[in-house]
Amino acid sequence: MSHAVHKFFAVSLILSSGTCFADLAQESGFDFTLSLNSGIYSGTSQRNTDKSNAITKDLKNNGKEKTQGIIFPLARWSYTLPSKKTQFFLGNSKADVVLGDINAELGLAHEVANGTTYTIAYTPYLSASEAWEDPFLTNTKRDATDVDSQGARIRVENLFSQPLTAQYTWGESDYEKERSGQQAGLSLTPTQQLLLQRDITYHQAYFEYTYATSDTFVIQPALTFTQGDGKGDAMSFDKVDFQLALISQLSERSLLVTSINVGQSDYDTSNPVFDKTQDDTNLGVTAFYSYARPFNWQNTTFIAIAKYEENDSNINFYDEDFITTSIGLAYKF
Fold first, then answer.
1. CATH class belonging to 13-332
2. Is the confidence at residue 8, as pLDDT, over 70?
3. DSSP reduced 3-state for 304
């Protein structure tokens, strides 16, 4: 969602390819889908709170590379009323997983007479649960602190009876212990230290258009505008993202979704640690593949996800890059 929010993981074609994460069910009643996934994660970032990255020799590098195996579940529970127009849900959104977002949410979706669908959802967990108390501490072990985050969204699909989606998202992140820039070696004044406060509130507007060129191919461009209103002005930013997703129904059972995202973040005030205003360019590429009923296993779908992300900043300390690959099986109960 933003510089401080890391994500790892829409279209009706997914439903025809087999079991996945649907927004509105074709039948009324309860529905539950569970996916178990495993893979490999590799990344370089000063926000990585692994012990191997606890000490940084200076503020001119972007941290140490971390590679590890990962195991994670994805799940979605829903209950659809007999009218098939209203659904309560808990878990991962189908549209978000395909495009690289695995945040879980609790919400309600309702379809009105003209086919427009309204969704309201609450996400209790948005970002990494830990951060460095003072990320700018050098040649000394940095201590981690907890980060509490939450968010909510309102989404409107099939707006004006067109394949247009609009969404507003609110989010916030609060740091339990904020000591950015407080080390004596930086010689920052209390006023300068306040510029580095990372508690932040996010406001995001998202617009998406779905264009089907044929029964088996869809082009889905999207624009996202994000405002990060930070407690510290040097941490506040405005960001614009453009995303293009290509959705291909390869066969009756298989689906491939590839997406590319390019973004630009402009920060409000000069960072007193580096004596310059941060300016970031973001790039992300995601590929999602699903194959329904492998080995003719009913209600089962094979899933493979690969994602690359990088943040290129005019301040080397904030450069980041991440690669994640995973495979898994989803089962619809």
1. mainly beta
2. no
3. strand
